[in-house]
Each structure stands twice: as C-alpha cells, then as structure tokens.
Amino acid sequence: MTDRPLDGQLALVTGASRGIGAATAEGLAALGAHVVLTARTAKALDEVEERIFQAGGSATIAPLDLTQTDAIAKLATAIGERWQALDVLVLNAATLGSLGAVPAIDPAEMARVLTLNVSAQAALIAAFDPMLRRSQAAKVIGVTSSVGREPRAYWGLYGASKAAFETLLAAYGDEMAAISRVRTAIVDPGATRTAMRARAYPGEDPLSVKAPAVVAQRIASLAVSGFEDGHRERVIASPA
Questions:
Q1: Are 174 and 229 within 8 A, CB to CB?
Q2: pTM score > 0.70 for this model?
Q3: Whose C-alpha in 119, 128, 197, 223 is 20 to 30 A from the C-alpha of 239?
Q4: Are 140 and 182 a contacting pair, CB within 8 Å?
Q5: Residue of 154, 158, 172, 201 marked active site
Q6: Cα–Cα distance, 109 to 138 (Å, whole number)
Q7: Where along the chain do its domains lie?
Q8: Predicted confidence (pLDDT) per residue in 177-228, tens digit
Q9: Is 158 annotated in the active site?
C-alpha cells in the first residue's frame, strides 16, 4: 500500500483549529488528502495549515461559525465549485456547555449547545450530501462522547446533545446504505488531552490521558480502510 493512500481525495474536518480536529486534519493530509479546515478562529487554522504545508501536505482554511447555517450552505457551494466530490467528512466540532444538574439547565444555553452539536451537524450533512454521493466511497465520521449513550450526573445537557447527534448520523447512514456509497461511523475518543477535557476536569493531570494524535490516527485509519455502515468504536490507548 502506498504511504499516501488518500491521494486525490478531499476531506473536510470541523473544529480543526486544535485538539482532535487539528490532529485529524494533519493526519489525513499526511496520507495525501487535501483537507479543508473549518473552525471559528482563523489564526489557529492558519497555524494548522502551516504545519500541514511544512509536512508536505495540502490544505485550505475556511473560517466560519457553524451556528450560522447560511454560512454552511455558502461553504458547501464554494467547495462544490472547486471540487467534484467530498470523500471524507469528519464531524468533530462541538461545545461542552455548563456541567450541572438537569433542573438547573439554562434554556438559552441549551439552545446554544443544541444548535452547534445537533442543528449544525444536520446542516453540514444536508449541505454536503450531494458531494458525498459523488464520491466513490464517502466516509462520514462523527466524534461523540460516552455520555451520549451512558447518562452521567451533571452531564445531561452535553450528553443529550451527543445522543441526538449519534441518532442523526446513524439515521443518515441507514438512509444512504442501500442507495449510495456513503458510509457513516461514530468514534468515541475516550479520555483525551483536549481543551474541552481540561475544562470538564480542571484538576486532572493532562499527561494522564492520551494525546489527540492517538485518536486522529484511528480516524485516519478508518478513512483509509473504510468500514461497514453503522460502525462504532471507542479509542482506548495509554497516555502518550
């Protein structure tokens, strides 16, 4: 197998400015894909893009706020004018919200969390569905959390958003399985050294959990090898 098995393929990674998203974008680019990087912070995206270029890969940055669904449609139009198909879509962007008891959930904050973690994901799938269908073997990989399936005290808001996201992505995959070559997978990173993790566990030694690159390597591997529709896995590895 070539060391650049994704040559000629196009990938889009959301939340690509840091953490798992940035590491995944760099991993896909190292395998030959041209990667479109999206996140709100242009400066951080520039830094990821530069690392990709320095490593011999190629990328395009697309700073945008995913909660603005018209921006998602415009992005899809712009990408569709330049490329025929989208081969890999990594739905990584999400927000934690506040951790707290269910009766204390603020309705306004709940709306913000669900907008990014669920509504924006639906908008991304809808906007890029035509390009995904034109791929020879499109892979849509969603990054989730264990609390989406295993409710935990004080994680009700985030967990509910991830449960909804998983259902949304799995339903799309089921719809596509018989009529296209689009396949979907859900990846639970497990405990990983990210800014979101640090916010949720402020007293934790970051070196006690694995680096984002470990998760990124697994996502990139799925992008290369493919998977049966409805694939789900949790990434388990020692800290590195």
A1: yes
A2: yes
A3: 223
A4: yes
A5: 158
A6: 34
A7: 10-234
A8: 999 999 999 999 999 999 999 999 999 999 999 999 999 999 999 999 999 9
A9: yes
